[in-house]
Amino acid sequence: MTNKINFSAGPAMLPHEVLLQAQQEMLDWNGSGLSVMEMSHRGKEFTSIAVEAEQNLREITDMPESYKVLFLQGGASAQFALVPLNLAGDNDLTNYINTGSWSKKAISEAQRLCEVNVVASTEATGFTSVPGQDELQLDADAAYLHYTPNETIGGVEFPYIPDAGSVPLVADMSSNILSKPLDISRFGLIYAGAQKNIGSAGLTVVIVRESLLGMASSKTPSMANYDIIAKAQSMYNTPPTYAIYIAGLVFKWIKNQGGLKVIEALNIKKSGKLYQCIDESGFYSNPVAINCRSRMNVPFTLANPELDIVFLQQVEQEAGMIALKGHRSVGGMRASIYNAMPEESIDTLISFMQEFERTHG
Ligand SMILES: *Cc1c(COP(=O)(O)O)cnc(C)c1O
User: What is the reported pTM?
Assistant: First the structure.
């Protein structure tokens, strides 16, 4: 076991079984006599790893045939630019929903490349909720509607999938992909950096409806052109081979857990316990509207912020729990509890929190 309980928002903890298998296969993958890291990306061994990873992702998400999976680099942040480059011309109008820090980054990058209309924003109320469907002032001629289903920093998650009408829906799913079953047919494009719920850093997964490919302007760099990458089966250049291998192990792990329905039930239970602990205390609080509290990232503040440092020191030194410091823009604490976080570790955190409240509250 890794001997810390890691609540980092990302790179985040991985399932123990995945790390163990990677360790066992480190020096000799499947009798090949090679480490995955040393393999040619075009050789038969690595090709089989990449094909199986994609197959398992398709299987667990029940992905329609009409969607392509791209294994890219550059993180979700690169997608902030690649999405408009591929789906919108310079003068095209795009629609964005602004629900927090990551939405804002996506918006400011898009503003350099196309016309952006922010169709709803919760900034005035401190990003503690999401707009309802009836509040979205959508433009019927927009190239797409972009939103952030889970705001990793604010801990705000959409409880519904926006209806974008005839316009393709684009989602930055970096921090809640694979946390629940997903109706992919509702989306034109989904992207996610791998380091939260998919695997290790260095890989970005894009799932795109095939009919949206081939629209990028001729000046788009090949490395940024979804169509070129798709036609090359994500092997236009050297892909992040080891990160793809780890992602493949995680997809298989999800399958072995019983799939996304089982994962979702666990995530509801895990996050529910933690929110209950916060709500029942007179000491901890979470500002997010109950219907859109994130199941993945749980921010909370202490009644007395001067105790933040004491809490962080004790939680690490006495209980081995790390990376609970909240994002500087929100303050307090944040527990990121992705798929890999075992329920027992959340119980350990809750016990610590209750004891801390007893002794310091
Ligand atoms: C972490 C995160 C990002 C940034 O991801 P990188 O891979 O570091 O570029 C973007 N959006 C969301 C929702 C995130 O959680």
Answer: 0.98
